[in-house]
């Protein structure tokens, strides 16, 4: 299944290997013409759901490189580590937590491994032109940009606790074993909410459960099948250094249940580490707020969405990506029934130019109409509009629906209103 998705992603322009012409580079991926549309739609949907729909949440966009002190104080320089072991036979290296009972995934048998070594996964960069250059880090999580701006946001808005700060952006980790396509990459994008609350257990419990449920609902709204999603609470030894509690939303991937997003109770770890207090004017009290976090990976949403939407329609011998219309990279495709009939082509072109002003719209006049429908089904386009001979007589066109393959006829003049209604949540 994963191989089918990797092949479709490349063939149709969703995801390409980074720097492929030079043999690629492990853990880096590029998004193609359809991939970038899908990615933008997911981020837009998340932003709408979090920043515009929830109460008391604002967004920011912080820099990727920060003062390196941030990473010392946050504990990442000391504790953002993976334990690495090496197979004594084939010398392949693995994360220790990914090895079970001394079984080497490369040799495909039980072997001996070296003692685990600590390996920090922050990516170092060097700034300036003269030696010694200043060492800094590409951010390992986008989160710290929120904490260092906490005071700026409080002072420039009217927000009062409880409130949230949301952000979307790139993060970098020097992963030991990138793999499973984009699942574990070295450069990836996160969508996060840091929700600041009054520091007591009852509030902590309330907001932790609130975000856990809200976030699961979002994946269901995106069309994910319920049976492919579950919660999994981290054992104390699995938790990141900052977390008092952690629950993952997991997806049933072909390579096993895998983390989609983490809901973390960070307590006052970060606020205390950076010494950032909040003065509560209602309680007349100064304190370190507690933080409940939701941290989702854009690339994992894309990968799991491709897997979850993929459908092989045996009856019609076609492959369909059953994206909800809001997420589909192309919303509508326009076809002239025959590419060599001037009147039909002109009418179809006029419709294409009109719709394109409002919705991502594709034009296709190659091959037979059935093949054109199937090509759109395979990239998840929900609607195809065909201009045929009847269109010349009565100014109607057909709309064909991706999932059912049914068709309706509609007046050309009603098309824009019809699609505005279909995409009112877009
Ligand atoms: N701020 C908290 C944080 O970063 P995390 O559980 O380490 O928590 C959150 O990461 C999410 O970021 C994960 O659930 C996943 O979706 C995404 N993510 C983490 N590492 C990744 C990687 N190497 N490749 C792709 N996505 C990753």
Please describe the structure with a list of short key phrases separated by commas or semicolons.
globular, 7-stranded mixed sheet, binds glycyl-adenosine-5'-phosphate, single chain, 426 residues, 13 helices, alpha+beta, 30% strand, 25 strands
> What's the main sheet like?
7 strands, mixed
Ligand inventory: glycyl-adenosine-5'-phosphate
Number of strands: 25
Molecular shape: globular
> Could you estimate the helical fraction of the residues in percent?
25-40%
Account of the protein in words:
With 426 residues, the chain is α+β, with helices and mostly antiparallel strands. Helices cover 30% and strands 30% of the residues. It contains 13 helices and 25 strands. It has a 7-stranded mixed sheet with strand order 3-11-12-18-15-14-13. Strand 19 (310-313) and strand 20 form a beta hairpin. Helix 2 crosses helix 9. The radius of gyration is 25 Å and the shape is globular. The model has no long low-confidence stretch (mean pLDDT 95). The chain binds glycyl-adenosine-5'-phosphate. Residues 141, 143, 173, 175, 184-185, 188, 190, 192, 259-262, 293, 295-297, 299-300 line the site of glycyl-adenosine-5'-phosphate. The site of glycyl-adenosine-5'-phosphate has 19 residues, from strand 12, strand 15, strand 18 and helix 9.
